[in-house]
Design a protein that fits this description.
heterodimer, A: alpha/beta, Rossmann fold, 2 domains, 12 helices, B: 442 residues, alpha/beta, TIM Barrel, 9-stranded mixed sheet, 14 helices
Chain lengths: 310, 442
Amino acid sequence: MQGKREKRDLLDVDQLELGEVESLLESAEAFEEVLRRPIKKVPALRGKTVVNLFYEPSTRTRFSFELAAKSLSADVLNFSASASSVEKGESLKDTGFTVQAMGADAVVIRHPVAGAPYLLAEWLDIPVINAGDGMHAHPTQALLDVYVMRKRLGKLEGRRVTFVGDILHSRVARSGIKVCTMLGMKVAVAAPPTFLPAWLPPGVEVFQRLDDALEDSHVIYLLRIQRERQQQGYLPSLEEYVSSFQMNEERLRKARPDVLVMHPGPMNRGVEITPGVAESPQSVVDYQVTCGVAVRMAVLFLLLGGAGGA
Amino acid sequence: MTKLLVRGGKVVDPFSGRSYQADILVAGGKIEAISRAFPDRGLKVLEAEGMYVFPGFLDLHAHLREPGKEEAEDLETGLRAAVRGGYTAVCCMPNTKPPLDNPELVEALYFKAKEIGLADLFPVGCITRGREGRELADMGLMSSCRARVRAFSDDGDGVMDSGLMRRALLYSRALGTVIISHPEDRALSRGGQVNEGKASYLMGLRGIPALAEEVMVARDILLAEETGARLHLAHLSTARSVQLVREARKRGVPVTAEVTPHHLLLTEEDIRGYDTNFKVNPPLRTRDDVRALLEGLVDGTIDAVATDHAPHTRESKEQEFDYAPFGISGLETAFPLLYTELVLRGELGLDELVALFTSGPARVLGVSPPLYGGQLVEGRIADLVIFDPRARWVIDPSRFASKGRNTPFAGREVKGRVVGVLKEGRVVYAEDGLLQDVGTVS
């Protein structure tokens, strides 16, 4: 690489070429190794400041980014919308410029409105990383998910992943479907009709019953069911959802023995997943959390690190 | 008084159905004579050689924001934008603050527009008091006041209460006025930002289904059929809406419909990133919908092109997609865009397009001379548009007369330009060099 680098953002997985996804996953392996050391820190981003701009409450994603940045020796500032100028009516644009003017080197943004990171990326000269925008995208989640799948399944091409539950409202599913498709996986969704979007990308198979999807799936990816969806009229009752779509021991027995059960967290035990399945050997939920830090280190390093890559 | 000679233009007159080359002599606000070749001594001359001359346009649907939102538009900038677009008459929608739901407010606005003197204002009154959808507004008083309200609408919101809508139609029938329906079922559209389908999935935004419009189009057609009241459907955007209107017309239901330029030219797939200039209600739909709207124009199911001119400030549009308001600033680009994209591509004849901007909307609103329209003949009010079909230009919102710079068409090259507008014989808009003084008044 030479000369002035164009600034790079990570707004969704489709901004990455297949080769870039591969090399990101490879560099995440190196960082996973760092995280297993007694001193979990490398000086790769020393002197850089990463700002977490969170317009939506989130503990796990924010912690994960914070840990990732700190493990790369960057400084981290946390800006949460409820405790800030947003309550005084400051616009996203003004907030973004303020953060940039303070000397931040990158912004990690979580926002309830789809597209907010795209606007910020257009306005600012520093890299913007999307940590989840509305129902639209959650690229680092999708990358960590395929990282975990690859570690556990090896080759992903031709393997089937089934996303289960509230596809309509899920940014995890949207980014996940994209990146799994990029990596050559067969993608399916299983959901009640009210949780299915009016349109899905070509090639995505739809199951009305989870039972029909179990046998052939290498990955069962459970999405969180928000309890208020019942009041909003999407579900007659949680019991009804549980009876058709909960991943329980009985369904686990019907699945492939080597199936991976995944969940982006936080889990609603007793709704989309039973405690027994959550703690079964097939469940990789905790490993997803661990890998999340490594993958986010790889993303930060890619966008902020010096030339040369990992 | 100086007489003005509009010389050598090609006149396209949808009111008479004729097109011809002629000089038009204007005096005392009226057309004094139409002839082949006038001597130009002692006249001011508007050289229209190679240009078209149309009757002034009528927009059925504009948001001029006054009173209450003058930072986005005021009556004067809105009317200035209108004449730049070739409009000599504009219906302004009543979703102002406060809403136009009483005769005092409607008259105040009407007389203010008269004083500005750029284009006629036909204020649309609210159907319901405060646009709250609960009780009828003073429709009779608004209709009989000096502003002579001819149409009522709660535009921006549909009247969700079917019983109230039915009574509004009955009442309007007795007044001889038109009810303009904003066909949207909120229960189906709530929270929606873009078309439900590909756009809502890919953008991760809540969708507005085509059904939200179609359910209300169907309901209002049935109500109009039963009450016999004049119903006009605003900004149709879906194929099934067009089909519902087509069938209703065949049954003789007194229903008319309009379509906007943006719904004719853009689809959900044209939305660039999260550019809120593409955020509009009803949302940009699919290619099939666009095709059906065009067919509706061609076969006469759709009576008029209306702009739904909805100016907004830069600050309000430069926001997260969900937070930005719906709307496109459209008065200044409507005709050139459709001339370029429909007429020059052979989809529609020039006379047909001009009719959709003049005689079509006049029929919808039920206005006739001397208020608006009528054949270009001696004695008619001289509301004229001079259109140069040779001009090529790039749409640049920073040069708009409107305060609203919010357009998805910025940067688009169009052919044909409104270069001059006469309102009651006065030149209310003219590009440099259009007017020549040939001699002094004798």
